[in-house]
From TrEMBL:
SUPFAM superfamilies: MetI-like. The gene is lacG. It comes from Asanoa siamensis. It comes from the Bacteria. This is Sugar ABC transporter permease. Residues 69-260 form the ABC transmembrane type-1 domain.
Amino acid sequence: MRRPSAWGVVAYVALVLYAVISLYPFAWMVSAAFKDRLEVLEGGHLIPARPTLATLADTWSRLHFFDYFLNSLQVTGLTVLGVLVIYSLAGYAFAMVEFPGRRFVFWFFVALLFVPSITVLLPLTILENRLGLLGTHAGLILPFVNGTAPLAVLMLTAAFRAVPRDLHDAATADGAGELRIFWRVYLPLARPTLITIGVLTAVPTWNEYVLTRVSLNDESRYTLPLALERLASGTVPSYNEIMAGSLILVVPVIVLFLALQRYFVNGLSGAVKN
C-alpha cells in the first residue's frame, strides 16, 4: 500500500480544517434554533443543554413564518415551472428548428449571461410600476423567469443537440409533428438537464433578497428572506428565533439538493460534455 506523501497529508489536513471552519456557522445556527433565548446568550457549548422545539414552533406559527414559507413556495414553484416550460420549448427550437436569425438570437441569449442583474434593477422597477406589477408576486416571478433565460437556453439547446438526429427523423417518418416529437422523444431524454435547471433556478429564487426588498411592501406578501430580515431588525434581537428562521429558510434547499443530487450531477456532466 502506497504511503501518502507529506504534501498529501498537509492538503488533507488543510481541507478538513477548511470544512470544519465552513460548517461551524451552520452547526451553530442549528444548535441555536433548539435553544431558548437565555441559553443562546450564555454562548459557549454547541450542543444545547436544554434542547427545545418551542423556538421553532413559535417562529413557525406565532411569527407567521408558515405564511411566508407559502409565499416563497408559490414564487419559487411558479418560477421553476415557467422556466422549464418556456425554455425547454426555446431550447428545442434552437436545436432542431430552422428559422431566420436562429444563430443571432441564440448567441444574444448567451451574451446576456455576462450582464449583471443589478444593472437592470432600476429600469425593471420603473417598468413594473407602470405595468402595475410592483409589489405583487407576479412582479417577482416574471423577472426571475426572464433572468434564468441565458443559462436555461444554453443548457437545454446543448442537451437537445446531443440527442441523435436519427430519432427525430424516425419520428417524423412515422407522421409525428414537432410538438409530439418534443414531448414524446426529446423531453424525456433531457430529464437530467431539466432537473439541473430546476435546482439552479429554485435555489437563487428561494434565497432572493434584493428584488423582493425593492418590490414588496405589503407584509402579507413577504417571502422568507424578508421575514428573516424583519425578525433580525427588532429593537432587541432574539438570536434563537433568528437562527430558527434561518433554519426554516435553508432546510428546504438542502432537502431539494439531496433528493435530486444524482440528476443534478448528471445534468451538469452532460452540459460540460456537450
